[in-house]
Amino acid sequence: MIPPRGGVRKGWQEGHVVVAPDKFRGSLTAPEVAAHLAAGLRAARPDVPVVTVPVADGGEGTVAALVASGYSGLQTNVTGPVGNPVVASFAMRSDQTAVIELAEASGLRRLPGRASATTAMTATSVGTGQLIRTAVMRGARRVVLGLGGSACTDGGAGMLTALGAKLLDGYGRPLPPGGAALRRLARIDTSEMLRVPVVVASDVDNPLLGQRGAAQIFGPQKGAGPREIEALEAGLARFSEIARRELGVDEADARGAGAAGGVGFAALAFLGAAVRPGIEIILEQLDFARVLAGARLVITGEGSLDEQTLNGKAPVGVAREAWRAEVPVIAVSGRRTIDRDLLRRFGIDNAYALTDIEPDPHMCISHAGPLLEQLAHSLAVVHLDRPLTRTT
Length: 392
Description:
By secondary structure, this protein is of the alpha/beta class. It has helices at 30-44, 62-68, 102-106, 117-122, 126-137, 157-162, 214-218, 226-247, 259-271, 278-285, 288-292, 314-324, 340-344, 361-366, 368-383, and strands at residues 7-8, 16-21, 50-52, 72-79, 85-92, 97-101, 142-146, 166-168, 187-189, 198-201, 274-276, 295-305, 329-336, 350-353, 389-390. The protein folds into two domains: 7-55 and 292-390, Glycerate kinase, domain 1 (Rossmann fold), CATH 3.40.50.10350; 62-279, Glycerate kinase, domain 2 (Alpha-Beta Complex), CATH 3.90.1510.10.
């Protein structure tokens, strides 16, 4: 949480407005949310400069947010989570940093049908490894890997094979894709594996195994039932055991090892990755501190302001950076289930939801763009003519 600050926040009287929202899931991308908010602000106060900086927390929508802010967007053909062909995007900038979003190649949204017990057992992260390899071939010397929304529970085995590792059974044969096959793992050969510095962007702190591990916590949302969870847990445990025995790596209990079905484990154990909060990394990539200089107000938000928002999601990360710059923050959302007093403890001075002006949640989803413009118009009238204050 952020320490309280009394009095008027510096910067409200003049300067630009920074619009830095995350996506409204199921409705609008982060760049679309930012564009609608900016349109409403400009309609009300055309004299006030507005700077749009769509943000993300490392999960779905991260690449789109960075491309909207000036990164180069590149595409390549990769293998989807169940072997289906996928055209996936990644982002690069001139300093040879590539930002790769696992959901682009290996996400639930890339399944050709619904998640099921079968896909839970066989889904692979190989497409994510192919994205990393392609980025390196195109000049990347550092990779930011955003984890979230995965279809796989393979411990990152598929990603490693795409980078050149060999995961073999007792007969020296390559394992088939998926987490269940890891139960037959006997040997790991990384002698020809491509290595590149990796930073993992994730807010998940789960370990690889156990009651809070990748299979038991995240397996059900990927179609796994009790039998599948047991098989996937056994496969991940075997993977961890062989990695420790043959390579001397022991990261199963590390913070974030269970992220994205255990892809966090592979990044930590085999690529030497560091895990950091996703929004923190993305704001660094966007040079957000520079954008805040001289700002009078920040407007952030996401589809739902709820208890999960407080666990390091994008609005709280934006508010933390704005607090350091002494710029006041307003959050907007489709709906809000936490009170304003609690949000203020996390640096958000005020919060509004589309349900404040349209009680029908279905309308809020289907007409989110016009409603955001209407809400932004009202916010400009109220907040750009007088200061926001915070009481201690």
